[in-house]
Design a protein that fits this description.
The chain has 362 residues and is α/β, with parallel strands linked by helices. The chain is built from eleven helices and 14 strands. It has a seven-stranded parallel β-sheet with strand order 8-9-7-6-12-13-14, sandwiched between helices. A five-stranded parallel β-sheet has the order 2-1-3-4-5, with helices on both faces. Helix 9 links the parallel strand 12 and strand 13. The chain starts with 7 loop residues before the first strand and ends with a helix.
Length: 362
């Protein structure tokens, strides 16, 4: 019999029905709900008293809202409680959910709608709350007010260049490359630190796969576009690959490339490993078409999406960069690439934009 204590969770939502659904879902997943709150002030008080391993958080609550809770938790130096946002989707809710992820929320689960089964919601919520609780055990580098991230110590497996310049060969690509960025948990925050630092034009073009529920990626694209030189848009299908544009895969659809490699294509084929979009599909398309003119960048994320694609990138002579463990929210997707012996270089998030620009030939 296991003696491991269950993950302790605080639930915050102004709807009594939703608090009950979330509580029952977490209990069914084997977690212990130690308190529920109707607003932000109650949530903070419960966190102070119970010191939970994680919290689920609605964003629209009376008084202190979810974003206010996240900001206060971030400011407190004596507590670090990972938060999974549980949000309904609408244009306003989508924007607020993306803001919450940028404020430091661990992940996002979409509230079930009336015509949806609760099973997928229960599975997603339980998995992400467990992942959030597990993330507390690994210290991460903090982002500065300017968005740069610094690591407190070097990773034992990530060799550092002896000096900032000259960089190891190849320091600059001799041909323009297509840039494909793959990320999952922690990705919105990482993208907010990375994409605004990328120049425009950049290589042949930029394609981004971020695992998010359907409906929320449009808000993410809008947020990134507002602070970036690149024109960041959610792909709708038919867009041209363009050096001045970054296309973001829409939640709930796979982003693919047409056979000529010049046009974005959306596919509603079944999820792979529970994921739609799946980065592997786009990476494999790009590797087949662009071969050594492809630059793959793998950022923070749970699981191993990108690994199968990275094998194709390596087989066709493309380049692969990954984010270092210190600056990842979850060191899953990058670890899979490194452990597979596929990474050409490993860099902290704060340096990746410079390296991408150099290797893509800005």
């Amino acid at each position: 019999m296991s003696t491991t204590s269950p993950v302790r969770v605080v639930v915050a939502d102004d709807s009594a029905l939703m608090r009950n659904i979330v509580t029952q879902s977490l209990t069914k997943a084997g977690l212990e709900v130690v308190g529920s709150a109707r607003d932000g002030d109650e949530a903070l008080a419960l966190c102070e008293r119970e010191r939970p391993d994680a919290m689920t958080l609605d964003l629209t609550m009376p008084g202190l809202d979810g974003l206010g809770v996240l900001r206060i938790l971030r400011e407190r130096t004596d507590t670090s409680i990972p938060v999974v946002v549980v949000s309904a989707f609408s244009a306003a809710h989508g924007a607020r959910a993306v803001d919450a992820l940028a404020e430091g929320a661990f992940d996002l689960v979409s509230k079930p709608t009336a015509n949806e089964s609760l099973d997928s919601f229960i599975d997603a919520l339980g998995t992400k709350v467990k992942q959030a609780a597990a993330s507390r055990r690994k210290p991460r580098a903090a982002a500065s007010s300017g968005g740069a991230v610094t690591a407190p110590r070097p990773a034992p497996w990530a060799p550092r260049p002896p000096a900032p310049t000259p960089r190891r060969s190849p320091a600059r690509s001799k041909v323009a490359r297509l840039v494909v960025i793959a990320t999952s948990t922690g990705g919105p925050r990482a993208l907010a630190a990375l994409v605004p630092k990328l120049p425009a034009p950049l290589g042949v073009g930029t394609l981004i796969v971020q695992h998010m529920p359907a409906g929320f990626t449009g808000s993410l694209a809008t947020r990134l576009n507002g602070s970036s030189a690149l024109n960041v848009i959610e792909a709708t299908g038919g867009e041209a690959v363009d050096p001045r544009i970054a296309l973001l895969a829409p939640g709930g659809m796979h982003l693919r490339l047409a056979d000529d490699g010049r046009t974005a294509v959306l596919s509603d084929e079944a999820p792979i490993g529970g994921l739609r979009p799946r980065a592997d599909l786009l990476i494999q398309d790009a590797a087949r078409i662009y071969r050594d003119r492809l630059l793959l960048v793998v950022l923070t994320g749970m699981g191993n999406d990108g690994l199968a694609g990275a094998r194709e990138v390596r087989r066709h002579g493309g380049r692969i960069l990954v984010e270092s463990e210190e600056t990842c929210t979850v060191y899953g997707m990058p670890r899979a690439i490194v452990d597979g012996g596929l990474a050409d270089e490993v860099h902290d998030l704060g340096r990746l934009a410079e390296v991408i620009a150099s290797e893509a030939r800005a």
